[in-house]
Specification:
With about 110 residues, the chain is an all-alpha fold. Helices cover about 80% and strands about 0% of the residues. The protein has five helices and no strands.
């Protein structure tokens, strides 16, 4: 029963990541395979990221920016306004990079 609950939670988290994949591409093969990989490796990645949570305190703001971008992109898709895959990846990498850099500087100063 425990195994069923754990695997079900992996599937729920993988489904939760579908909007994030759509912020990069609408190619069904990429969406499917990325979610398959999320189900296979999410638990191991979670334990690794849990240990880094204090080190990267501002990453939650970067993730929030990425989620807002995803919502805006999906909303604008209703009006046939699209972003290129490259521009989406650049925005995501920039938002996460800035938040990780801010976290590293803050932990060096000891303010977090």
């Amino acid at each position: 029963m425990v195994l069923v609950v754990v695997e079900l939670s992996d599937i729920i988290f993988a489904i939760d990541s579908v909007p994030a994949v759509f912020s990069v591409t609408t190619n069904p093969v990429i969406v499917y395979t990325s979610n398959l990989m999320a189900v296979l490796g999410l638990r191991q990645l979670y334990f690794g990221l849990e240990k880094l949570a204090k080190r990267f305190a501002y990453v939650k703001y970067g993730v929030a920016a990425v989620l807002m971008f995803t919502g805006l992109k999906l909303f604008l898709a209703l009006f046939d306004c699209t972003f290129s895959t490259l521009s989406s990846i650049i925005f995501i990498m920039t938002a996460l990079g800035i938040s990780m850099t801010a976290s590293l500087f803050a932990t060096k100063k000891g303010s977090v």
